[in-house]
Amino acid sequence: MPDHAPKGLTRLAFGGDYNPEQWPESDWQDDVRLMREAGVTMVSVGIFSWALLEPAPGAHDFGWLDRLLGLLHENGIRADLGTPTVAPPAWFYRAHPDALPVTADGVRYEFGSRGAICHSNPAYREAAADITTRLATRYADHPALALWHVHNEYGVPVSACYCDGCAAHFRRWLETTYETVDAVNEAWGAAFWGQRYGSLDEINPPRTTPTVGNPAQALDYRRFADATMRENFVRERDILHRLAPGIPVTTNFMTALSQCDSVDYWAWGREVDLVSNDHYLITDGRRTHVNLAMAADLTRSVAGGAPWLLMEHAAGGVNWQPRNPAKAPGEMARNSLSHVARGSDGAMFFQWRQSRRGAEKFHSAMLPHAGTESRLWREVVQLGADIESLTPVRDTRTVADAAVLWDWHSWWAQALEWRPSEDHDARERADSFYEALYDRHLTVDFAHPEDDLSAYPLVVVPALYLATEAAARNLREYVENGGTLVVSYFSGIVDEHDAVHPGPYPGALRDVLGLTVEEFSPLLAGETVRITGPDGARLTGDVWTEIVVPRGAETVWTYEDGLAAGRPAVTRHRLGEGTAWYVSTRLGARELDAILGTAGDDAGIAPRAELPRDVEVVRRTGASGNFLFVINHTDADVKVPLESHGTELLTGERAAGRLAVPAGGVRVVNLDA
Fold first, then answer.
1. Mean per-residue pLDDT, 471-478
2. Is the per-residue pLDDT at 287 higher than 60?
3. Which strands sit side by side in the sheet containing 568-575, from one edge to the other?
4. Nearest-angstrom CA–CA distance, 658 and 323
5. Where are the domains of the chain?
């Protein structure tokens, strides 16, 4: 198995997607000169180049790529070499129009964008394997090669195809998964609405129906689509491992973007040699740096805590949101170094040079249209110097204080049709609970519900609609052995087939929570409820309420009004050596602070009130040192207490007592060094 780190890269990765095919070859020398000026250590190449590498069926042209990789090597720049299988050429689709995906409505997409692939299509699979084999054979020993980059952002923009070829593939997947049609009927509850099948041959994908279809079938189809994409990745990966041993293989994830909620990254994280991620700020008026931290923490968790790589982010504004503001001075550095603080061994961008043509010509780049006489370029050069100063943090690990449970299968199930309230959003709950933990200055690992949780004093469950019996046992054992658990509403309701657990809600979790729920009582749009807690404190909830009946749990907060008036709103259940909390209404991040503060006391987590809001403090540790990152997202200078003295890596200054961090600035202290 190759090492996780890009081969030959002795510093943190810094660079971006380089698409020289968009520019005259006479510009390449100038590009590489500017890369050296900026401190670039690695670039991603060839990701969308299939049509150039194979301009006609069986006719290959590698000369331009030979010259490019040679130029990069001569200038000490490593290459993350893509297999271009995200964008088959026009000639391929002309020969194999059935490789274009079909929607659930029966509409076949056309060529002319990217990622328009039926992943079940045999012709696509063979062509992808062929171009991958040719690249691996030619470049396995190239001195510039540091990393293989398979495909690009699997699942974006299409993950599932509903064509007849996929229907046949789905039936084979069902046979492998369930063995018999009777087992499928049982898992899907097919007796309801007369949906029972007599043979697997009668089953099609969940195409458009007159009203809502079978939710268990739709859930399984999401699993099938994800598994099919992953099969294609593994096939390319295995070719690369065989022909280019020692070179790690990755594909760029998009762990925390809603545009890519079709991928189970827990499963994918086990297949790549190096986890890499693309992250773009969603500029919707919220605190974007909190979402960034969440994405970085989730990616590190998918990597099993090991160092990972920020493969893409934006130097400035993007171009695909309704409004795309530029980043403020210093924001690019804060964004980049927050990812590094949370485990990335580098900061890469899309892209190196801003495009003149195509759909992303207004997407920012390291080298903007404004050229080198621009603020953005000066910040890129400074960031390159800062990244070089942080070389000692390479291969260290981020230290977490708490865990948040995250399960893509549960989210897929919850997002299906006909749920109690369309206003309940699993991602919103995760965002709000994460923000509350962030504001308490707790660094978070994410975990699968069946993972070992014993290392965490506090585990938060923002939304676990689908909970397996194994997950329920795991959470009960965690609490009995001394852990503190905080669970939000509408969790533990169904099993892995979207069947309601027998007995009262919350199904699989009622024993650990010490309560039952007689009824869900979602609120209408704009409705709110008040809840009252210790010493008469009041909070306001919305979207959801429940009729909660304690079965061993104690009531901590009570509904003041609404259908559940006088009944428990927030409970605490002491079980074995630990405690399980339940929150039965939707509270915002600020309101959740009151609950998490008391739960944190149960968990023995000391408050960190001396740290200002929007100043993140994160630690990475390893053989090379104990590194404290302090990132100031405010417009005021701050001072942060240090537990010991050390050396600040970006300025070279000694640090002791209280560390001064300027407004919008970043400081990284190697403690005891």
1. 98
2. yes
3. 444-447, 402-405, 458-461, 484-488, 578-583, 568-575, 554-559, 528-532, 538-542
4. 39
5. 13-88+140-158+246-393, 402-603, 615-671
State the first-to-last Cα distance of the chain, in angstroms, to the nearest integer: 34
DSSP designation for 394: T
**Gap between the Cα atoms of 230 and 508, Å rounded:** 30
| pTM passes above 0.85 | yes
CA distances to 228, 495, 539, 581 from 125, rounded to whole Å, are: 11, 34, 55, 49
Q: Would you call 56 exposed, middle or buried from its count of C-beta atoms within 10 A (0-12, 13-18, 19+)? A: exposed
Q: What is the dihedral of CA 498, 502, 508, 510, to 10 degrees?
A: 140
What is the mean predicted confidence (pLDDT) over 563-574?
98
Residues labelled as active-site residues: 153, 312
402-603: which CATH topology? Rossmann fold (3.40.50)
Peptide bond into 506 cis (omega under 30): yes
Contact of 265 with 301, CB cutoff 8 Å = no
Q: Which residue is associated with the tokens 């060094």?
A: 673
Task: Kindly report whether the peptide bond that precedes residue 259 is cis, defined as omega within 30 degrees of 0.
Answer: no
Decide if pLDDT at 258 tops 70: no
- Residue 395 contacts residue 624 (beta carbons within 8 Å): yes
- pLDDT value at 204 more than 90: yes
Share of the chain above pLDDT 70, in %: 99
C-alpha–C-alpha distance, residues 646 and 669, integer Å: 6
The owner of tokens 């510039």 is 144
550 has a pLDDT exceeding 60: yes
Identify any residues that bridge with 324 across adjacent strands, giving them in sequence order. Answer: none
Provide the pLDDT confidence category of residue 285 given band limits of 50, 70 and 90. confident
The CATH class, in words, for 13-88+140-158+246-393 is: alpha beta
Q: Give the separation between CA 49 and CA 70, rounded to whole angstroms.
A: 17
Residues 431, 434: Cα–Cα separation, whole Å: 5
Burial label for 195, CB within 10 Å (0-12, 13-18, 19+), is middle
Using an 8 Å Cβ cutoff, are 86 and 117 in contact?
Answer: yes
Which CATH number is 615-671's, of 2.60.120.260, 3.10.20.440, 2.40.10.220, 2.60.40.1180? 2.60.40.1180
Q: Are strands 402-405 and 625-632 parallel, antiparallel or unpaired?
A: unpaired
DSSP classification of residue 586: B
CA distances from 424 to 128, 523, 581, 587 (A): 40, 10, 20, 12
Closest CA to 86 of 236, 293, 295: 236
Q: How many CB atoms lie within 10 A of CB 140?
A: 16
Dist CA 29 CA 546 (whole Å): 65
Residue 130 pLDDT more than 60?
A: yes
DSSP helix/strand/coil, 59: strand
CA angle 321, 324, 330 (to 5 degrees): 130
Query: Backbone phi, then psi, for 512, in 5-degree steps?
Result: -70, -30
Binned at pLDDT 50, 70 and 90, residue 609 comes out as confident
| Interval 339-396: pLDDT, tens | 999 999 999 999 999 999 999 999 999 999 999 999 999 999 999 999 999 999 999 9
pLDDT at position 248 is: 98
Across 436-449, average pLDDT: 98
DSSP letters, 526-539, are: T-EEEEE-GGG-EE
